Structures are given as C-alpha cells and as structure tokens.
Amino acid sequence: MPAQSKPKTLTRLLDLLQAIPRRSSVSAQDLHTRLTERGHAVTIRSVQRDLQMLREHFPLEVNENSKPHSWRWGVEADQGIGGMNPHEALMVALAEKHLRTALPGHMTDSFDTVFEEAHRRLKKIDGPAGMPRWIDKVAVVSPGLMQLAPEVDKGMRRVLSTALLKGEQVEAYYARVSPTTPDRVHSQRYILHPLGMVLRGSITYLIASQGWGRPPGFYALHRFRRARPLGHPVDLPSPEWTLDGWLASGQAQFGMHPDKPPLELSLACSQMMANMLREAPLGPDQEIGSMPDGRRHVQVTVADTWELRWWLQGRSADVQVLAPVALREAIRQSLKQALDIYDGQFVMPFTERFEPD
C-alpha cells in the first residue's frame, strides 16, 4: 500500500466503523452509500473486504441468512472506538436532546451509535437506588413559546442535506404561503444553491441562494415538496462568503436586509425590564439611564428585523419606543389594530406583516 494512501484508508475504515449501527442492521450497499456521501471513492467490493477484515478485530455481527448480508455491532460491544469519559457522555446526552431534530437524515444512524454509547456510559455511573439517573438530570428548555416541530419528509431531508454536503445545486419545488390568500399554498420551482442548514427554534431551514449575485435566503425544510440534485457545483454569493460570517451579520433574524442600516433604538422601560436588559443586553453598546418619570432610558444599536418588532410588541406594557419615529409609529399602528380587534372591531391586517414567508 503506498504510504500516501494510508491516512485515507484509515479515515475510511473509521468512518465505516462509525456507520455501522448497534440496534438495526445495514447492508454493505448501504454502508457503501454512506461512505460515498462522506467523500470516499470506494467500490462496493472494497467495502465488503473491509468489513470482513474489521470483523477479525472488532465485535461485529453479520447476518448471513439475509439477502444481502447485513451488519451491526455485537451485543458485547461497549464503548466503541476511544470511548468517552462521564463528562463527555453527559455533554453528548445534553446535545442529543437539543440536536436530535437538527441532524441531517443520513447522519442520524451514525450519531445514534454515539448517543447510545453516552447512555450506556451514564448508566454505569448512576447513583443509589431511588436517585435520579444522570440522563434525567439534564434538559433543554426553549426561552420562548415552543411550537411543535413540523413534519419533514426523511427522503427530502436526505436529498437536501446530501446536496449541501456535496456542494451541489438542486432543483426544488417549494411551497410558499401567499399573504393575500393564506389558506392556499403555492408551490414554485427553484434552482437552489445550498449553502448551509440552520435550526431556529423548532424549524430547520436550508440556507440557499438562487444563483450568483442573489442573496441567500431561508427555506423551511417542511415546505419542500420535491427536490433532486443537479450535479452542478454551487456558486457562493462571494468568494469570501461563509455561513458563520453571514449569521454573525444578523441574517439569522428574519427581516434583516443586507442594505438596511442598523437602528439607533431609544426605549423607555420599566425598572423590571431595565434589570432584565442589564443582565442580557440587546447589544454591546447598550446604555441605561434614568428618566424624570421613574422609568429607565435604554439606548442601543440593533438590526431592524421582524424579531425585534415581535419583541417590542410582546413587551409593550414594559417597553415604549421613543425613536426612531418610523418604528415607533409602526408599533403604535400594530398595537392599535390589536386593540380594535379586542374591542370587537374587525379590521384588515396591518400591511407590514411581521412574519417570514
């Protein structure tokens, strides 16, 4: 074996071991597909030889009665490759609770092995009888109103996540809700350039552009009706574009436009709200001062987004917008509309909707 091929072979074998499940079984063909998705150029015959070789050194089981033969880890397999200490196991268990819905479809099986290893490790360090298990001592709680996650077709998730990992364009049919006819869903055809995937609350979004020079946008995975890879490489919005940089610029907040300048926000807040903002500021330049009427004045630079406006409306009993004037008027109009509805006066929806497509 040439020396330069040894690292690639080792990486392939490690990926192959990680792709083998513990509870269910998979065929060599399925494992070949997973290795290909991870960028390994390997034949099905090579995968079969690798499995036979690994079987001599690891507790792998093969069901020779199935057609094709299927593979899994044996029941005696314990901590897997490298194992993990209790602190690592606790962090993995916590991450599982948060990331389970965010994992791309074809990655789930591989990570199931890691999650199961963490659970087994934590069981070994459980305390006396009657005490809560380690896994019952961690939880993930949403800070806001938690909505149920919409159903995402597993096949669709697999196609989109594979295209993202391979850097390939996709032809997709995506359903948008029309603001004029919200009871009707319109499916449109797009050629998308997948750039990233973001879990925001209970919804997973594909970050994609529609080609060179077009700004990236959010596409909710549950709204995709059809998608197929085109085999063409994606075009980045710019040579230096990165998902982290894009998110750091505030794009993860709906309504943010790259050409929209930030707001110099001036608020009059209750003492309670001022205390909350002192603990968790709206921005790094936030300043809090006193006002003659006993309230607190908050000055901060923020992005003008729908989420900001949702927050201002939801906190309207404790927060009053002083400036900018246009934002103050938009919030006032929206609150007036809500008051009219509660007073029994039906009005047409406010034209500036604070919600994404």
From TrEMBL:
Species this chain originates from: Sphaerotilus sulfidivorans
Record-linked InterPro entries: CBASS_pafABC_assoc_protein, WCX_dom, WYL_dom
Residue ranges of every copy of the WCX domain listed in the record: 263-339
Entry superkingdom: Bacteria
Single Gene Ontology MF annotation: DNA binding
WYL domain sequence ranges: 159-228
Record protein name field: DNA-binding transcriptional regulator YafY
Record keyword DNA-binding present: yes
Keyword list, A-Z: DNA-binding, Plasmid
Keyword DNA-binding: yes
